[in-house]
Each structure stands twice: as structure tokens, then as C-alpha cells.
């Protein structure tokens, strides 16, 4: 065997080869030597012709029958296979669908149960929160009311000393009888030095300048 | 999208998209997710949409993937089949891994089917194959192979008529 690499590497230059036919080209006329030659028609006797016709017919009929038989068989087989496979696949698919639905329903039920539980807990938490808020609000209101009532009580107590039209005269008399002099000074020890009668000692101007 | 921009750009890498495990059955046409962005019970659904939806869409280019954001009281997944059937999955308070696992068990193709399909696809797409229905109808198209004798005549040294000549 000749190695293929020999041709691939072009180490051998004889590879150029032309496709050649071993006959006369179609466009050339009949050869001179054959120009008036008339081929003799084959002579077939009547018996032989009939015999050949019979054999041929037999052959064709039988072959057609065989061909048709196999063709029909193939078609039958194909259709039966197809129907069987499609039925099988449909059955398989239906089974699978059933299985999937079951799994999914199980999952959904579980999720629903979990959610219900969670909702319960959340609801309890919300109730707790609301109650706490209500309590806080109540407490605040109560505190406000207590503070307000204390204020009212204090004001009521004070109202006994108010000056009213009834005791206006008495109050005026009392005020006139006890004049209060606010014009006083307080030293660091808290002693009050009333100032209306005490003469003011003005410091010397010279001393101030020196100081 | 520019490279390495935005949140978790790894989601757009080919390796990540190819690593998706969920391949739907052939009959599924629409896959829809409803979820909210607030609430502890929506965390799993939200993360599922964020992390796994790109993979799902990449692995199932013929399936419509829809999301309903902030339109539902509780998160859910709904799949529509081509013959009108539908399957509803409640994904309330579930992690994204749990959801994916469940979907793979119900609406996804099983591992065996996927493997069989991969083998079939590989056989069909093997670049070494040639003939009818393949990428190349004849081996003679490959560089370095012997051309078809109908196109270029076979060298005489290859032919039995000349190779095995007795005289």
C-alpha cells in the first residue's frame, strides 16, 4: 500500500491525472468504417416470444405481490408501533401528571398549615401590642385627669383668700391699715434694711477719684 | 448591561446561567411568580426571583416567564400547560432552595430524562459525523481526505484495476 502522506506532501509529482473516457466523444459523427453498416434485427420465433412473455409476466406478477406484501407489512407494523408508543407515552404522561399533582397538593397543604400557625402567632402578637397600647393610653389619660384634679383642688383652696365684692371694703381697710413698704435693700446675710426713712449717704467725689 | 455592574452581576455570566438545574417539561408554556417585596414570608420568593429566574429563563427559552410584584396577598407560582392545565404552588415562607427543589420534582424534567436528552443531542451534534442529516454530507469535504472520485478522478495507483494487474 502506498502511504497517503506521499501524495499529501506532493513529494511525488506524478499525481496530476486526467479523468479519461475510453470511447468516442458524443459530438463526433459515425466512424467512416461503420457509416453504412445496418445492424441485423434479432429474430425471435413466435414460441420463444410467447414463452419469454409468459416468464416475464410471471416474474413481474410475483415480484409485485412480494413487494406489496412487504410494503403492507411495513405500514401495519409502523402504525401499530406508533399507536402503541403514543398510548404508552400518554399513559406515562398521565401517571406523571398524577404524581406531580399529588406531590404539589401535599406541599400546598403543608404550606397552608404552616401559614395558619404563623398567622395565629402573628395575630396574638398584634393583639398583645394593641392591648399594651390601650393600657399605656389609659394610664396617660388617668395621669392627666389626676393632675388636673389636683390643680382644681389647689385653686379652690386658694379661692378662699380671693377679694370679692363682699369683702372689698374690709380688704381696703386692711390694706390701708397695714401699708407695706417694698423700698428696701437686702444685704448678703439676708437682713432687710428699709430705705424710706434712712438717709442716703453720698460718697465724697474726691475719694472716688482717688479710689 | 455593562460587565460587572449592578447587583450581583454574576447572574449574567454564562457559567451561572448554564448551571441552572430547572428544565421544564415540554408541555409547559408559561411560568409565573407572584410575590411581595415586604414581609418575612416573602423573602424566599423574592430571593428565588432574584437568583434563579435568570437561570430558568436561560434554560427554557421557549417558556414565557412572568412575575407579579406586589400584587398578591401571599406568594405563589403558577405554571400553565399547553393543553390548558395549570398547577399552583404555594411558596409562602419557603426558602429559595426548597422552592427550586419542589419545582424540579413537579414541573421539571427528571435527571434521567435530561441525561438521555443530552446524550441524544450530543450524538446528533458530533462534529465527526458525516452523511445525510449531518453537518457535512461527505467526508471528502474535509481537508486532507481523498476527494470523491466523481469530483476528482481517483489516482490509478489507488484503483484495484491497476494495483492488482497481473501482467
Automatic annotation (TrEMBL), chain A:
Stated family: Belongs to the mitochondrion-specific ribosomal protein mS26 family.
Signal peptide: none
Keywords carried by this UniProt record: Mitochondrion, Ribonucleoprotein, Ribosomal protein, Transit peptide
Compartment(s) of residence: Mitochondrion
Name this protein carries in UniProt: Small ribosomal subunit protein mS26
UniProt keyword Iron-sulfur, yes or no: no
UniProt xrefs under InterPro entries: Ribosomal_mS26 (IPR026140)
GO CC terms of this entry: mitochondrial small ribosomal subunit
Keyword Cytoplasm: no
Transmembrane segments: none
Primary site of residence: mitochondrion
UniProtKB/TrEMBL annotation, chain B:
Keyword Transport in annotation: no
Recorded GO CC terms: mitochondrion; ribonucleoprotein complex; ribosome
Main localization, broad class: mitochondrion
GO molecular function: structural constituent of ribosome
One Pfam family of this chain: L51_S25_CI-B8
Domain of life where this protein originates: Eukaryota
InterPro entries hit by this protein: Ribosomal_mL43/mS25/NADH_DH, Ribosomal_mS25/mL61, Thioredoxin-like_sf
Gene3D superfamilies, alphabetized: Glutaredoxin (3.40.30.10)
Localization in the cell: Mitochondrion
SUPFAM superfamilies associated with the record: Thioredoxin-like
Ribosomal protein/NADH dehydrogenase domain boundaries: 40-110
Swiss-Prot/TrEMBL keywords: Mitochondrion, Ribonucleoprotein, Ribosomal protein
Family that this chain belongs to: Belongs to the mitochondrion-specific ribosomal protein mS25 family.
Name listed for the protein in its UniProt record: Small ribosomal subunit protein mS25
Amino acid at each position: 500500500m502506498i502511504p497517503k502522506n506521499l501524495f499529501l506532501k506532493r513529494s511525488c509529482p506524478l499525481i496530476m491525472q486526467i479523468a479519461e473516457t475510453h470511447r468516442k466523444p458524443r459530438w463526433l459523427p459515425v466512424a467512416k468504417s461503420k457509416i453504412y453498416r445496418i445492424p441485423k434485427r434479432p429474430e425471435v420465433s413466435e414460441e420463444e416470444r410467447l414463452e419469454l412473455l409468459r416468464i416475464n409476466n410471471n416474474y413481474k406478477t410475483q415480484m409485485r405481490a412480494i413487494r406489496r406484501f412487504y410494503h403492507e407489512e411495513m405500514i401495519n407494523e409502523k402504525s401499530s408501533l406508533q399507536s402503541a408508543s403514543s398510548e404508552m407515552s400518554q399513559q406515562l404522561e398521565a401517571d406523571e401528571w398524577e404524581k406531580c399533582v399529588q406531590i404539589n397538593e401535599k406541599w400546598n397543604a403543608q404550606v397552608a398549615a404552616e401559614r395558619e400557625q404563623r398567622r395565629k402567632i402573628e395575630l396574638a402578637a398584634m393583639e398583645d401590642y394593641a392591648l399594651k397600647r390601650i393600657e399605656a393610653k389609659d394610664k396617660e389619660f388617668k395621669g392627666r385627669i389626676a393632675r388636673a384634679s389636683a390643680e382644681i383642688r389647689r385653686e379652690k383652696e386658694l379661692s378662699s383668700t380671693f377679694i370679692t365684692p363682699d369683702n372689698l371694703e374690709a380688704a381696703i381697710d386692711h390694706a390701708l391699715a397695714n401699708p407695706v413698704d417694698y423700698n428696701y435693700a437686702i444685704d448678703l446675710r439676708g437682713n432687710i434694711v428699709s430705705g424710706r426713712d434712712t438717709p442716703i449717704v453720698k460718697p465724697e467725689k474726691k475719694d472716688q477719684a482717688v479710689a | 448591561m455593562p460587565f460587572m455592574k449592578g447587583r450581583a452581576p454574576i447572574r449574567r455570566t454564562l457559567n451561572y446561567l448554564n448551571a441552572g438545574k430547572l428544565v421544564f417539561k415540554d408541555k409547559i408554556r408559561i411560568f409565573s411568580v407572584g410575590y411581595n417585596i415586604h414581609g418575612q414570608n416573602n423573602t424566599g420568593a423574592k430571593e428565588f426571583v432574584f437568583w434563579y429566574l435568570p437561570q430558568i429563563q436561560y434554560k427554557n427559552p421557549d417558556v414565557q416567564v412572568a412575575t407579579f410584584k406586589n400584587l398578591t396577598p401571599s406568594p405563589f407560582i403558577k405554571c400553565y400547560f399547553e393543553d390548558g392545565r395549570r398547577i399552583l404552588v404555594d411558596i409562602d415562607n419557603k426558602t429559595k432552595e426548597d422552592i427550586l427543589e419542589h419545582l424540579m420534582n413537579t414541573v421539571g424534567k427528571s435527571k434521567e430524562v435530561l441525561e438521555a436528552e443530552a446524550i441524544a443531542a450530543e450524538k446528533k451534534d458530533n462534529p465527526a459525523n458525516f452523511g445525510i442529516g449531518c453537518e457535512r454530507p461527505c467526508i471528502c469535504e474535509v481537508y486532507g481526505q481523498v476527494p470523491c472520485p466523481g469530483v476528482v478522478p481517483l489516482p490509478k495507483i489507488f484503483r484495484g484495476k491497476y494495483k492488482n494487474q497481473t501482467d
